[in-house]
């Protein structure tokens, strides 16, 4: 008898399942709007010019494949922290940010979850928005935190449920951890306004909650690095201690290179040294040390003035292509096709994803009748749309909602 005879089959991953159905579909019109990876105007994966240039520079400079330190490439982590917190950030200038490289954003969240589970002195419960990125729930549970939720999305109005959010955070036990999507909330595409962020910061302060930011889309949301970092920088300026998970998957297109960083703002350099030592103790038995190539690419881009400004315009280009698609869908549905319903949210949402408001039976019909694949909750990855397929997409939406 096999040792694994009693292992039950688990459910398939909801997003990877979509990609499989898409692959099996033989229609030439098929569109995959499930996976959250940027596609160019021809629907193809996109490697940034600055990434190619950085790779050339690295090939010429780095002769070996030696291990990185446990917390990764020091130039990379310093530049990643600078990108997120900004040059005039108080903890940054005081040497009071403890930062480590991570296996992209997922790994950063996981290191943070493990660190909080081990060292956070208050309630080890983390509040996640409903809905949230599906992986947050098992990730924090497996890190050893108790997962709870706060209201975020108003289904009725396809908007932020700000009253629900405030009331749930106000009734959370003091000292709880709260996970905040720094920008481009996944899956809704709906972010708080700067004014709402200021109120959230006040509520977090009043209830002594601990803010943990997940920033997987800096620059990718608005096209502007500083603007997308507003929430994180505002909280830090307001005197909060924060935890931060960063990913370079989207804004540098480094998906498979697994390039990210986890950081904590701390009291002073002495405390930083103690926290750094504990981050190493958490990371060492997990994977020893992180992969080098992606961190070298990101570090090269962030550390070179000319490459950095070219990268800024490439990020802006990706964000703007997505914003253009939003405007196009909105105008096709509202003006050209006169599709029943209110579609303003498609235009006002931000980032890679849009919650269309399509119901599960309608998303099923989109796949079966139109060969267009998306998650059952009606989320689409805007990046899968382009000038060649957006008209067909809008007509297909029109057909399923009538
Ligand atoms: N957080 C959110 C909200 C995300 O959408 C993603 C990417 N889908 C991640 C974290 C992490 O992605 P990665 O591990 O590829 O950086």
TrEMBL record:
The keyword Transferase applies. GO terms for cellular component: mitochondrion. The keyword Electron transport does not apply. Keywords: Aminotransferase, Pyridoxal phosphate, Transferase. Its EC number is 2.6.1.1. Residues 29-396 form the Aminotransferase class I/classII large domain. GO terms for biological process: L-aspartate catabolic process. It comes from the Eukaryota. One of its GO terms (molecular function) is pyridoxal phosphate binding. Its cofactor is pyridoxal 5'-phosphate. Homodimer. NCBIfam families: PRK09257.1. Belongs to the class-I pyridoxal-phosphate-dependent aminotransferase family. This is aspartate transaminase.
């Amino acid at each position: 008898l096999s040792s694994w005879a009693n292992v039950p089959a688990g459910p398939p991953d909801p997003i990877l399942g979509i990609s499989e159905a898409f692959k099996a579909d033989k229609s030439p019109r098929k569109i995959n709007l499930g996976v959250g990876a940027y596609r160019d105007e021809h629907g193809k994966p996109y490697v940034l010019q600055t990434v190619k240039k950085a790779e050339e520079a690295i090939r010429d400079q780095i002769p070996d494949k030696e291990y990185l330190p446990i917390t990764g490439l020091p130039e990379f982590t310093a530049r990643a922290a600078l990108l997120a917190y900004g040059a005039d950030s108080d903890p940054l200038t005081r040497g009071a940010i403890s930062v480590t490289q991570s296996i992209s954003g997922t790994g950063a969240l996981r290191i943070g979850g493990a660190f909080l589970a081990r060292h956070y002195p208050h309630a080890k419960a983390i509040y996640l928005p409903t809905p949230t990125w599906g992986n947050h729930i098992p990730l924090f549970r497996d890190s050893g935190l108790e997962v709870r939720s706060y209201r975020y999305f108003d289904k009725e109005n396809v908007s932020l449920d700000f009253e629900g959010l405030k009331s749930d955070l106000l009734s959370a036990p003091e000292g709880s951890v709260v996970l905040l999507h720094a920008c481009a909330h996944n899956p809704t595409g709906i972010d708080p306004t700067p004014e709402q962020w200021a109120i959230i910061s006040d509520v977090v302060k009043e209830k002594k909650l601990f803010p943990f930011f997940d920033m997987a889309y800096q620059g990718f949301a608005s096209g502007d690095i500083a603007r997308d970092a507003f929430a994180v920088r505002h909280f830090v300026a307001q005197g909060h201690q924060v935890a931060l998970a960063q990913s370079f998957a989207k804004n540098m297109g480094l998906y498979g290179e697994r390039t990210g960083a986890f950081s904590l703002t701390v009291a002073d350099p002495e405390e930083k040294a103690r926290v750094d030592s504990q981050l190493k103790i958490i990371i060492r038995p997990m994977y020893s040390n992180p992969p080098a190539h992606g961190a070298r690419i990101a570090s090269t881009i962030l550390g070179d003035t000319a490459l950095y400004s070219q990268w800024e315009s490439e990020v802006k280009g990706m964000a703007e292509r997505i914003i253009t698609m939003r405007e196009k869908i909105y105008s096709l549905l509202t003006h050209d096709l006169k599709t029943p319903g209110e579609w303003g949210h498609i235009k006002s949402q931000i980032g890679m994803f849009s919650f269309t408001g399509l119901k599960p039976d309608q998303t099923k019909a989109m796949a079966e009748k139109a060969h267009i694949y998306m998650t059952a909750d009606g989320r689409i990855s805007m990046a899968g749309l382009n000038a060649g397929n957006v008209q067909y997409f809008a007509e297909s939406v029109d057909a399923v909602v009538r």
